[in-house]
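User: My advisor, Dr. K., asked me to get a structural model of this assembly before our group meeting. I'm new to this, so sorry if the format is off. These are the inputs:
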Amino acid sequence: GGSCERPGTLPAHLPPIKVLGFTVEHGFPSQPSALAYDPRLRVMAIGTKAGAVKLYGAPGVELTGLHKETATVTQLHFLAGQGWLLSLLDDNSLHLWEIYQKEGCSHLEETRSFGLPARPGCSPSITRVTVILPMSSGTVACLGTEGGAVYFLALPALVLLEDKTLFQDEILQSVPDDYRCGKALGPVESIQEHPQDAGRLLIGYSRGLVALWDQSTGSPCSLPGFQTPAVPFSQQLESLAWEHSGKNIVSSHSDGGYMVWAVGGSGQRTQQPITAVIPYGPFPCKAVSKILWRTCESGNPFVIFSGGMPRASYGDRHCVSVLQGRILATLEFTSRVIDFFTVQDPEVPEGGFENPRALVVLVEEELVVIDLQTPGWPTIPAPYLAPLHSSAITCSYHISNVPLKLWERIVSAGEQQSPRLSSAAWPINGGKNLAQEPTQRGLLLTGHEDGTVRFWDASGVSLKPLYKLGTANIFQTDCEHNDSLNQAGEEEWPPFRKVGCFDPYSDDPRLGIQKITLCKYTSKMVVAGTAGQVLVMELNDDKSEHAVSVATVDLLQDREGFTWKGHDRLAPRNGPIAFAPGFQPSVLVQCVPPAAVTAITLHSEWNLVAFGTSHGFGLFDYHRRNPVLARCTLHPNDSLAMEGPLSRVKSLKKSLRQSFRRIRKSRVSGKKRLNVQEANAQLAEQAGPPEVEMTPVQRRIEPRSADDSLSGVVRCLYFADTFLRDAAHHGPTMWAGTNSGSVFAYALEVPSQEKFSERAVEAVLGKEIQLMHRAPVVAIAVLDGRGNPLPEPYEVSRDLAKAPDMQGSHSMLISSEEQFKVFTLPKVSAKTKFKLTAHEGCRVRKVALVSLASTAAEERVENCLACLTNLGDIHIFTVPALRPQVHYSCIRKEDISGIASCVFTKHGQGFYLISPSEFERFSLSARNVTEPLCCLEVSRLVPRGAPGHLLARLRRLSQQQHGEPAGHHRGHHGGGSEGFPGVRCGRSTSGCCRQL
Amino acid sequence: MILLTKRVGISYLLNLVCFKPWIQLDFKWLCNQGSLIDVRDKSSECSGGAFGAEFRRFSLERSKPGKFEEFYGLLQHVHKIPNVDVLVGYTDVHGDLLPINNDDNYHKAVSTANPLLRIFIQRKEDADYSAFGTDTVTRKKNVLTNVLRPDNHKKKPHIVISMPQDFRPVSSIIDVDILPETHRRVRLYKYGTDKPLGFYIRDGSSVRVTPHGLEKVPGIFISRLVPGGLAQSTGLLAVNDEVLEVNGIEVSGKSLDQVTDMMIANSRNLIITVRPANQRNNVVRNSRNSGSSGQSTESSLPSSTPNILANFLQGEEESDEEDIIIEDSGEPQQIPKAAPTSLESLTQIDLLHEPTQNGFLPSSEVNLNHSACNVSMEYEVQNPDRKSLEEDGTIITL
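Assistant: The format is fine. Below is the predicted structure of the whole assembly, which you can bring to the meeting.
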């Protein structure tokens, strides 16, 4: 993957161009529903329930498309090597996708669609497509249907070859009498092409009849029928597969068994299978839904199948079994198996072996790839499709320009974590990544519900896992993670092997990570969690066994009349704890009461960490390991703050119930009251059909008062070297902002580096500001004499940032949920402001100072304030003038978790969750863009530029002119398929931009 | 002209000589040395003892007479009674004794004075409010006798009604002249927490006249008034009134939640433009030809309104929402506005700016004359209540 820089054609004096472009989706597609693989292009396609189609090849090779219909993609089939992809939706429509080249890059686009015409007089389900087989010739696809008929479709025109249709009757006529069971054959379950002789099709029907159909003669040539009237219903056919030589076929059945049949010569009938096994019998088993047979040079063939587990004992397990001779591995997944395929060379010489390299299994929540050529069949780590949600994401944090040294240490720590992974190369490696190498290393950190912090390489298009940090081992939790359970299971039958990492169950919700901060120069990290735990960590390249020093900070500060009713604090484990190489905790600070940490900040030069909860904030010196300051921010009337998260759930339920009751009550009384005259009056007044709803949604208009609940929540903390007390001396300061619009500023006495151990840090309250609009303070930043944000600690001393201007007067930018304000320092006077809520009716959800580089010249950098609102819009303001520049709609306003998950990077990119498992990446700067640029070499039998394609192009053009369909700007909008800034940006720039 | 003063009353003759661009104000006051009251005796009471005939002259810009407060301060200063609350009145062209207690009537007084303006000053606690009003001067033969000899007229005790400045505004109808008759712009002054704003809004639909005929469009309506709330007590808002604007911003196209947030964000000085459900109480204007607004009742508001409203808002809105700072655990103070000069150094690139509500804060509007004009005396106002002026080093010239 890579950061793409647009060629600079603009003069250098032009300001940075602000755009909003959705560039790439990171992570694992939500609700996948179909899988396909093209062995020639070596790319894989995944379809989703939302109608998205995503292609993946070598890392960085990604193409995305979205069906116009929001319907589930039930099947995907490549026309191998040709760059065509057939998709079937659950509305029974077929769609043809094309990989086409534009400006040297490949794009994916739907070119035409097809619906099987209903048969007159029959129920529409008769023509529901159950099976698709694109034939190896590449010009015809067979469609098996629920009614049992097989249709043939010319490709890529998607024209039905009506005369070729093969109805059940034709099959039945040529079937001997004892094969007929007096019933229809049932839906077509499987159609498989003969691996050597493309003219012969194996057609399997649900009730069990399998016919080998010779297309050239137009008659069934072989009938390996095993359905006799005596065969119980449970033996219904589930799937069919050829052995590579074409001499044998294997069938799987609903009773959990599979059978191998020899295919005789023409006209022969096969009565008995060579083998019939129920691998997990003898007790009743679930159906084997799909089976593959792969020959292998080194020994026995691989038989790979999904399902078939003993119904009573393991019926709820999601398994794929790999059987080679006597070796059986029951791969167990934590979510439902959707589909699987094996990767091998597309061309196998006559009499050769397939030698599958890898098994790729798509389950609902992740993609797992098994190395079939290394003994023990280890998993191959995936370079993309990371299951971000293996435990629910609770927070995210982005660090740009990570120094190489730190990067290497994190990568090395990650490599040492997973020795059991295969070293085999990633098998799905088609296409060429054309994106430039990323110019800088970006690290995305995600905090999870289970107390882990995951480190992702976010430099390029594919989000790659680097390292995983667990914090649970520091605490005594009820359920100890038990690896011995797995080992004990070695002896059991079936031989389960847990694969994949999706594990949504958290042992203890208190372990959840709430806030992360990392100093990239000193490798110090602070992680804070749900039970008020604040962990100061250091990166250590070696493993270590040490005790973590524990401190508690009372944030209530002997305020009376408060009793915490929430969860207990986490009990730390006593004594030395073993830590693997990587980030190792040195200090644990626990807040009292143990409410979730709502804000943290770290200053690695001063050795200070500040943290806040709903009760107050504290300052801790992690060098001397003692608390410096604790301040309670609670308002005396705030009762909710003491309840903790658990009882709040209860009260929410209660209030929901109450409001339902209220609605019901008012509905009843409303009806009673409404007499005819009133109804008529209402009618006349509304001059339209009367509103059905009797009690419309009402909103109370009342200003925020000082005693609103949860007013004490600390929303942001900030360290700055600035002028707090007088204009002559600057020094360390700490700032805290609360939910009720209060800002506290402390002057800190920090001893010099040499005297850290001797002298303690002191904090003196310098200023207290109360914003009269009382909105929550979401961010505080100090701007230097030139109006630039202050650099991070060590940034200047390592020559990575310009020294701040300490001559001119500093100013302070306070962002509340409703307004942005700039005040002078040290004497606080109001300078500029922007009242966002009063003007736009939206509230600030996320805010960040970003520097946008000019497209023409990288040196031309503009500092802006980027803000994401509760309506999902992104607004950009100049700093410090706070002049609105542009705004875009970015996230649907209903997508509350998406808005809550948004993080901005320093250079104007951003991430937000479009599903629990996927980050959408966007860019606000035309300069700094990360998007997939790739090329797939396709060889078509039908030349491109066919009339149908022209039509498609025209359609695409008209789509561009009329703007994309609503809702496209969020979620699956075909991120990679359009050039940047592309169609989707076009709308926002022309529609809602206000250039002031 | 000779006027009389009571022991607590001072009357002026303001001689407004057109001396463009300045108005020459000749302040004269004479103490009645007659038998009525012993002024000398009381003058010492009026801190400063400056009662005596005096003649003063100073300049005021005709077009910019300044604010009432400044004028008041000036009077207090001139008479060296800085801590004495007084009522200021003047006689208008009809001879009525009318109060001067705000910018508007002060400006009115100055503008109608041709060329003389008679001014009466009374100490507040001794003031006779009944003296004010229509026909006060003409009806009673001598207003001064009324003013100066209240004892003679004490037939019935008058109900003492405070002057408007002693009241806190609760609500007002504004911009009547620029709004269509079917619309009403109501300003609610939220003060403290004693009384809730007390209303609810809901979604609904309203009918608009468009080029395509009648069209139903979504709208925001007042759904409920809380009994005893500010909204209800004004009597200017009612259930089912359609909300058209909030503080100058049209609500069409905005969701209920957005409008809610806008109203709450502006709740300390909320101006909502409504189309009352009951159209019978509308203000009927005489001059319908004054503007096209009468016709465009159903269409959008006149384009000039946001501007006017914004200007209108600016002055008042700035004062009501100053954040508070506590320095070194001292007393809470309002955060002043920064002088614009320091700001410009930061934003040299952004030269084009209008002082709108957002963005740059306008500097405190102290457009008092500097010493350039011909003045005979120069005072620095020493008023403890006006610290900001003092800090800015602004000088009021006399």
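One thing worth pointing out at the meeting: The radius of gyration of chain A is 32 Å.

User: Perfect, thanks a lot.
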